[in-house]
Design brief:
The complex is a heterodimer of chains A (343) and B (321).
Chain A (H helix, E strand, L loop, with lengths): L6 E14 L2 E14 L3 E5 L6 H9 L8 E8 L2 E2 L5 H7 L4 E4 L3 H4 L6 H12 L4 H14 L5 H4 L9 H13 L5 E5 L7 H18 L2 E6 L2 H7 L2 E6 L2 E7 H6 L4 H8 L56 E2 L5 H16 L4
Parallel strand pairs in A: 3-8, 3-9, 6-7, 7-8
Antiparallel strand pairs in A: 1-2, 1-4, 4-5, 9-10, 10-11
Helix pairs in contact in A: 4-5, 4-7, 5-7, 7-8, 11-12
Chain B lengths: L1 H28 L6 H4 L6 H11 L5 H14 L18 H36 L4 H15 L2 H15 L15 H35 L2 H8 L4 H31 L1 H6 L5 H10 L3 H29 L1 H4 L2
Helix pairs in contact in B: 1-13, 5-6, 5-8, 5-10, 5-13, 6-8, 7-8, 8-10, 9-10, 10-12, 10-13, 12-13
Classes of the chains: A alpha/beta (343), B mainly alpha (321).
């Protein structure tokens, strides 16, 4: 058992490439981060920024025949990437669990919800079917399904979207995992339900004492729930630090772009500023900084030299060539504009 | 659920009625020549013809004949239920002829179906799991062969190789089950295999495609994320959801073979229902043709009903609609 607050998961230089007929897709490049017990790490970025692929690689759900994965994913001293498929499936669902974006498609339409959760119990535990069912009902109750014993006998189509996501969370919790990966868990849900699910994730994080990786493209979600934030673009980390640091003083122009394009209650809609252009092709990414074709602050070295992920003095990690005084000045104004003056 | 079945049942009845009307019109209103001539011997007198027409009921208007036929069909006639009338030429009731022929065809279909389901689904699953490997290519090659080899050629080749060259006791013709299981099955084994080969090819391809599609679904990813074994992911989660198109196809294939296994029946001289239909059609024995057609139609309708009910068992979403 790991002590509270200790490191659970250490990802080092994770790189994922998919060779295709059109060329090699460089989905994830040199991603490193760590996750502590009780921490929520928010991974933010546009569609196609490599957020999901990073997590699928961690939990071993990428087809190794089609994806070239290098780097290390160290969990409790073992490199998960070096495990054989059956060793990995012993970890999956027991120590590291995952919930997905679309709860409508993530449950098997032909099996009862309770049975599907009981199946997760039986996958890692030799116990009777009745006991597994009991555990399923108990967990459904804990994630807030009313009348759980009755509802466990329902099929997924009899559940609402929010209830299905609750059921997915219950399924993820059956073995008291250490790490919960939530891949855009609220994207497919109604706004009112989104908040409930996020709250539930925060509750179970505390109750079960786990580390959560929360993937999202919604900065608001991250701001509310995350302890640390990693901003990804075109498969690379642009900025990485604690939530207080990243939102208190965002250092990367891409993070500024994300903030400017986010609506907030006290800003008029006309002042929303989208990031011009679209994410680059991952088959032939631009030379230098991957963000430079869309960056308003680009200058000489950006198109030729790739900025390293470094922390300026007194700051947190970012990958940008701008001088640190400039970054801090521009970042501070963004932070004040979006979140008001923080302590 | 009961309402669902009741509704489907009523539909089945409507379909059978419609087919009855349509086939009757086609066969009776567009006859090729006067059926009475066939009974009358050489150079018949107008009186004999009139008498035969009276005996066959052909002297009534068509709507009266149709009404009587429908009545007999649903209520039975002196030859039993369902009443299908009397053959024009053979000197037997249509019902008696069908009851002799039906077991041959049904045994043929059942045996072949067991073989092609097992073979086709197994090959399909292996192909899907080992996609793009040499196993997949070999299996799909086999499927293509099964699909494209004509049954009459395949049947004759099988007879040539196994019966003639190798001298195995796989004879043509038919022996009833009462003549012993071995006698019965040795006459059926080649037709079973030949008929099954064609369908195994189709089923392997459908299973492969259906399973590949299912394996791309999100809930398969969930199953893997739970840490289930690959075997359980594919068989319990994947195959379960891929069954629907296979069940649909299976129901219809079985039904259509009731009157449609003619070539296999002919090559192996089984003289089943398909053979009976062709033989009577060539001899313009309309009541027999009509009888076999109705039997096939009822088989299709009933199999559709069974498929619909099977859906409800397979897919809970259908049940609660």
């Amino acid at each position: 058992m790991t002590a509270p607050g200790s490191t659970l998961l250490e990802v080092e230089e994770l790189t994922v490439r998919f060779p295709t007929a059109d060329g090699v897709v460089q989905a994830v490049t040199n991603v490193s981060f760590s996750l502590r017990r009780g921490e929520t790490l928010g991974i933010v970025g546009e569609s196609g920024s490599g957020k999901s692929v990073t997590n699928l690689a961690i939990i071993g759900l990428l087809n190794r025949k089609r994806a070239e994965i290098t780097g290390k994913v160290v969990f409790e001293g073992t490199d998960l990437l070096a495990l054989k498929p059956d060793e990995l499936s012993a970890v999956r669902g027991r120590d590291i669990a995952m919930i997905f974006q679309d709860p409508f498609a993530s449950l098997h339409p032909m099996y009862r919800v309770g049975d599907q959760i009981a199946e997760a119990v039986l996958a890692h535990e030799k116990t009777s079917k009745g006991k597994a069912q009991q555990r399923a009902v108990e967990l459904l109750g804990r994630v807030g399904i009313p009348n759980a014993a009755q509802r466990a006998k329902d099929y997924p189509h009899q559940f609402s979207g929010g209830m299905r996501q609750r059921a997915m969370i219950a399924m993820a919790l059956v073995h008291n995992p250490d790490v919960l990966i939530a891949d855009e868990p609220t994207t497919a849900l109604d706004v009112t339900v989104q908040a409930q699910i996020l709250e539930l994730i925060q509750t179970v994080k505390a109750e079960f004492d786990i580390g959560v990786i929360l993937v999202t493209h919604d900065l608001g979600v991250v701001e509310e729930t995350a302890d640390s934030v990693m901003v990804m673009y075109a498969g690379s980390v642009m900025e990485y630090g604690s939530a207080a640091e990243v939102f208190g003083l965002p250092q990367h122009p891409y993070s500024w772009g994300l903030l400017d394009s986010m609506p907030s209650i006290d800003r008029r809609l006309e002042t929303l500023m989208p990031i011009e252009g679209s994410p680059p092709s991952l088959i032939s990414p631009p030379p230098g900084c991957p963000f430079h074709p869309r960056c308003r602050y680009r200058f000489e070295p950006c198109s030729s030299v790739r900025p390293p992920l470094e922390a300026p003095p007194g700051g947190h990690l970012d990958a940008c060539h701008l001088p640190s005084e400039r970054k801090q000045a521009l970042g501070r104004s963004r932070s004040v504009e979006h979140f008001g003056a923080r302590a | 659920m009961a309402l669902y079945i009741a509704r489907r049942l009523i539909w089945t009845l409507v379909v059978v009625l419609a087919v009855l009307g349509l086939t009757f019109v086609v066969f009776y209103l567009l006859p090729a020549g006067d059926p009475a001539l066939r009974f009358a011997g050489r150079s018949p007198t107008p009186e004999t013809l009139a008498e035969i027409r009276h005996r066959l009921g052909l002297d009534h208007p068509w709507w009266y004949q149709f009404g009587r036929y429908s009545w007999h069909f649903f209520a039975g006639d002196q030859y039993g239920w369902p009443g299908l009338g009397y053959s024009y030429s053979g000197g037997f009731s249509v019902m008696s002829q069908i009851t002799t022929r039906a077991p041959r065809t049904l045994f043929l279909i059942m045996g072949a179906a067991i073989i092609w389901l097992t073979l086709g689904v197994t090959i399909g699953v292996i192909s899907a799991v080992k996609r793009r490997s040499w196993i997949d290519r070999a299996a799909m090659g086999f499927a293509l062969f099964g699909l494209s080899a004509p049954v009459f050629w395949l049947g004759l080749m099988a007879l040539f190789i196994f019966w003639r060259e190798l001298g195995l006791p796989f004879d043509t013709g038919y022996e009833p089950l009462s003549a012993g299981v071995w006698n019965w099955s040795r006459h059926l084994i080649l037709p079973w295999c030949v008929l099954a080969l064609l369908y195994a090819g189709i089923y392997a391809r459908v299973t492969r495609n259906s399973l590949l599609e299912t394996l791309g679904e999100d809930y398969i990813r969930t199953a893997r994320a739970k840490g289930l074994s690959e075997r359980s992911v594919i068989l319990k989660h994947g195959l379960r959801a891929s069954l629907t198109p296979i069940v649909t196809m299976f129901g219809l294939d079985i039904a259509l073979l009731v009157g449609g296994a003619v070539i296999t029946e002919s090559v192996f001289n089984l003289q089943g229902l398909g053979w009976l239909a062709i033989d009577s059609a060539l001899g313009q024995d309309l009541p027999v043709v009509l009888g076999v057609t109705m039997l096939t139609a009822v088989a299709v309708a009933v199999m559709n009903l069974i498929v619909d009910i099977a859906y409800a068992f397979l897919d809970p979403r259908v049940r609660t609609q």
